[in-house]
Amino acid sequence: MAAGDLGELLVPYMPTIRVPKSGDRVYKTECAFSYDSPDSEGGLYVCMNTFLGFGREHIERHYRKTGQCVYLHLKRHVIEKVPGASGGALPKRRNAKLFLDLEANGDLSSDDFEYEDEAKLVIFPDHYEISLPNIEELPALVTIASDALLSAKSPYRKQDPDSWEEELQASKHAKSLVQLDNGVRIPPSGWKCSKCDLRENLWLNLTDGSVLCGKWFFDGSGGNGHAMEHYKETGYPLAVKLGTITPDGADVYSFDEEEPVLDPHIAKHLAHFGIDMLQMQVAENGLRDNDIKPRVSEWEVIQEAGVKLKPMYGPGYTGMKNLGNSCYLNAVMQAIFSIPEFQRAYVGNLPRIFDYSPLDPTQDFNTQMAKLGHGLLSGQYSKPPVKSELIEQVMKEEHKPQQNGISPQMFKAFVSKDHTEFSSNRQQDAQEFFLHLINLVERNPVGSENPSDVFRFLVEERTQCCQSRKVRYTERVDYIMQLPVAMEAATNKDELIAYELKRREAEAARRAPPELVRAKIPFSACLQAFSEPSNVEDFWSSALQAKSAGVKSSRFASFPQYLVVQIKKFTFGLDWIPKKLDVSIDMPDFLDINHLRAMGLQPGEEELPDIAPPIIIPEDPKDRMMNHFVEYIDESSVMQLAEMGFPLEACRKAVYYTGNMGAEVAFNWIIAHMEEPDFAEPLVVPVFGGAASSGVTGFGAVGLDNQPPEEMVSIIISMGFQRSLAIQALKATNNNLERALEWIFSHPELEEEDGEPALSVMDLENHTNANILAETRSGGPRIKDGPGRYELFGFISHMGTSTMSGHYVCHLKKEGRWVIYNDLRVCASERPPKDLGYIYFYHRIPS
């Protein structure tokens, strides 16, 4: 076709073709609805107006919905190199046809194969194709737009230079790094800075093997900066953070480039100092079982190192790429999409979700959940290599690599948006992310079934005044059963004492530490600790109308369909640095907690009067708007929340803004405010000098329009109640949050006000346990009560010393056998370490 003809062909579409500007997100590496990419067989179509990418299965949907006709089609081909005269491949040369910013396929040898990228314009609906580049024949606008799109940076790079979201780049020093042959060998544990006594935040210099403390790298941990001083003295540029090394990589920092970097040769560089980051694959390379030494390190036991593991492929056995400390997300999402209710809600409704998705599906929670669920469950991205097919493809001179696993980059970018911690590349707490995800699920309903209902349950709390012996019963909503670690019940105390003595002796003598002895804790002791009464700090007795000693105990007012159990392994040291209890707990395959069923007010018990604590009016009139604010923060409640894995400053704010009413109420505040950009920012106590004139009220203060404070309303809504009921309850109790919750549970007969619809009963056809579905009345939280007998079907394990570092893997029971999900590696499990888990998933056994 002549140049003029091409120009005339594109004239009708010119108003729809845009040139990407600064700030535009260009999705040229991944489909918005699937994990297709330019590497896929059908390539990727990028809209020349919205810059969204679509695979071959989804491009027609976007065309029909938007009427957009012009797309840039991108395709990467893998070509077998032409053999040279000696029979080998021709020497590698720079390929001018390689212009897509894609990762190389690690399964292909660069000596035998090379890449070739292809770009062309496609005009719908006739699929008319125009090859690029075609500068002479195309209008200038089209050429400029195409070039700008091809050169656009990843949409996951944030413009904020302080953001950790920016993708890591390979260091310029990695390929040519010089390593000194000085005989240094790094032990697997017991590290200490060679210039001071610090044992945290340690960095291994990859040139000379020096172990030195950091100062501000990655997690902001304290240090004396000896690693940086060493670089200034020697010029040795790269260091790896000890404690972050896994089979998938490690945290590497370049002093010269002044930023975190990727080291494509990290395995080789670590091996120079005796560190085998791929040791879990040794058995697959030919070692016999009797050649393998017993392994006790949690890194080895949890990842089943030294055991030949059979890779698993097909639907439900798809791995997920680690994006850089994103294993917490991978582990949680593998567990979530092993649950039928989530499969039905998102994958079962996939056509409807996709058809009704907004114009930008990358910013829609339900679309991205359906995309992720389909990617994990379809088997499309988990296919075993077939040698016969490979030979046939090579004969045709084009290799079509199988995509093994998915990269949850688009999903992570959306669910972590505006969240200080999850939007970073730092390691996070899987339990905190689980609650964050549940919050998003509840805020984005999909159809008549809300899959998060399967986790929700009611907790009955019994509080007793020790002096008057009177009691109060209240109920709250929860999603996780948190079990304390009963260290005092360890069955191997003598071994632990002996080990600690040997460890201290070895440390003093600078010897390798002795073989680890892990505390063995009976599960029954943890369950007993959960049910035992605890003291209530700063308890105000309405019977005495004064402060008194009080005790509180918790029971299940309802049992969830799926019980999530968290072992509270994380605590804080005296230096406020998170620590982890390395313990072994004999978690049962079958669990019966019917004995923890709440009984309510018992015969002979007398209830505490329904009297609220007096409101203290400050002497200074200008501070009267702060009459509900507290002058101190209950640090014990702060510590309880921090041990759950929430940021310390967020915990302090939660306790402050809920008036020191206990960790449970503060927990609900956290759930309601996790999405706020300043969630983890330091607490700033508001000043209300001019509040009366401006109409500003603090949390707990009565608004000038007689409306309850929005903070309190949000907390109650987060528990699953309707807004109108929350307002009515707060007004009826003078904005006392604790009494408002009691009021709600004592008035279940109330209908919804203001024309708001009541919570509908879920479609019973979607539930196999319909006979035990127990929907509460209008206005109450949706629960699925039933018997408290459960069977274990999955657990998430953590390796490392704190939530700030380490690695997560997930074990799930599928088709009668255990499977380990370790990021991209999905294998049949031979020795599932059920005693070392952090979060356990149980499903109810039907009666």
TrEMBL record:
EC annotation from Swiss-Prot or TrEMBL: 3.4.19.12
Active-site residues from the entry: 327, 807
Biological processes per GO annotation: autophagy; protein deubiquitination; proteolysis
UniProt entry tagged with the keyword Repeat: yes
Domain UBP-type: start-end pairs: 169-277
Catalytic activity reported: Thiol-dependent hydrolysis of ester, thioester, amide, peptide and isopeptide bonds formed by the C-terminal Gly of ubiquitin (a 76-residue protein attached to proteins as an intracellular targeting signal)
GO MF: cysteine-type deubiquitinase activity; zinc ion binding
Pfam families noted in UniProt: UBA, UCH, zf-UBP, zf-UBP_var
Stretches assigned to the USP domain: 318-845
UBA domain sequence ranges: 632-673, 707-747
Annotated residues for binding of Zn(2+): 193, 196, 213, 226
Entry annotated with the keyword Hydrolase: yes
Family affiliation: Belongs to the peptidase C19 family.
Name used for this protein in its record: Ubiquitin carboxyl-terminal hydrolase
Protein's organism: Chrysolophus pictus (Golden pheasant)
Organism lineage string: Eukaryota, Metazoa, Chordata, Craniata, Vertebrata
